Amino acid sequence: MKTRRDVNLSKDYTKEDVIQNKKQAIRILNKLLESLINDSSEQHLKKANLISYWLKNFANYIEFEESFSPSRLIRYSRGNVIRANLGFNIGKEMGGLHYAIVLDNDNKRNADVITIIPLSSTDGRMVHERNVDLGTELFERVSIRQKNLLHAAQKELEDYLPIHNLFDSLTDAILKSDSQDISEDLALIDRQRVMLENKEKIVKRTISILESHSNEILKMKHGSMAVVNQIRTISKQRIYIPKKSEDFLYNISLSAAAMDKINSKIKELFIFEK
Predict the structure, then answer these.
(1) What are phi and psi of 88, to 5 degrees?
(2) pLDDT at 11
(3) Res 161: pLDDT
(4) Residue 10 — pLDDT band, cuts 50, 70, 90?
(5) Suppose 139 and one of 10, 127, 220, 274 were both cysteines; which one would form an S-S bond, judging by CB atoms 3.0 to 4.6 Å apart?
(6) Would strands 113-121 and 232-235 be described as parallel, antiparallel, or unpaired?
(7) Which residue in 212, 220, 205 sits closest to 252, CA to CA?
(8) Which residues contact 100 (CB under 8 A, 6 or more apart)?
(9) CB-based burial of residue 99 (10 Å sphere; 0-12 exposed, 13-18 middle, 19+ buried)?
(10) How far apart are CA 184 and CA 113, in angstroms?
(11) Closest CA to 136 of 119, 148, 156
């Protein structure tokens, strides 16, 4: 005999079944969140916040799922470093935004999914035998790239200052001139100034994004590890960065020696040898 739940999860469902499922899900979720929020435990409050944050992200992923095209992203190769949103997971499953290593030997640009190994900072901890100690290699590669891009962006922003001064000087000169029709000249300078300001906004946003990664990068200063026993395949929608060649993680990969250690650990954990 089928229970109500069995009916709702079967292929034979009605619109009313879906509506009832939705109402029940919202009630259960709201009850859970209210319970966590009203608990005196700081850990439970954090959990409620993480669940809420993930549900907003999850809803966005679903909303744009049909229009998402992986071919708009860069092509990823084995050993590439990415950062992906692993979501809110159960128990000891890794979740949230994490650096990860691409495992696919030949991931096509139009492939919807990609296989990864999540990475984690060691924080001075002993590296478990199921994981691979990467030392400070990841920190060195990522931090150097970030610093170089940040320096270049800051230099570009500084180079715009003399151009602003030039526009100011030209405007003053035009206003002091004897010309009766200066509106066209002033309009031309204004258009050029707006274009420059738009470029500045883009550079400032780039600087802000690069600086926002600083705390996460610093966590790897004392070492990182590949959490091999949490290998998984994810949708490319979950990739936070890099998505295009301008992103700071673009083309950053682990060394061949590091990938050899990961390959050996995968073989040890998952492949039978008779």
Answers:
(1) -90, 120
(2) 72
(3) 92
(4) low
(5) 220
(6) antiparallel
(7) 220
(8) 81, 82, 83, 84, 116, 117, 118, 119
(9) buried
(10) 54
(11) 119
Amino acid occupying residue 195 = M
Distance between CA atoms of residues 253 and 91, nearest Å: 30
Helix-strand-coil percent breakdown of the chain, rounded to 5? 55, 15, 30
Q: Which pair of structure tokens corresponds to residue 136?
A: 């400070």
Residue 87 token pair: 């979501």
**Shortest CA distance to 234 belongs to which of 120, 8, 79, 70?**
70
pLDDT greater at residue 153 or residue 274: 153
Asked, as a colleague might, if the bond just before 242 is cis with ω within 30 of 0, I would say yes
Which residues lie below 8 Å from residue 55, measured CB to CB, with a gap of 6+?
29, 88
Q: Which helix (H) or strand (E) holds 81?
A: strand 81-85
- Specify the 3-state DSSP secondary structure of 109: coil
Q: What is the rounded average pLDDT of the residues 152-178?
A: 90
Mean of pLDDT over the chain: 90
Q: What's the whole-model pTM score?
A: 0.80
Which pLDDT belongs to residue 175? 86
The dihedral through the CA atoms of 170, 172, 174, 177 has a sign that is negative
The span from the CA of 262 to the CA of 249, in Å, is 20
- Contact of 134 with 224, CB cutoff 8 Å: yes
Please compute the mean of the pLDDT values over residues 44-67 and round it to a whole number. 94
CATH architecture of 70-136+222-270: Roll (2.30)
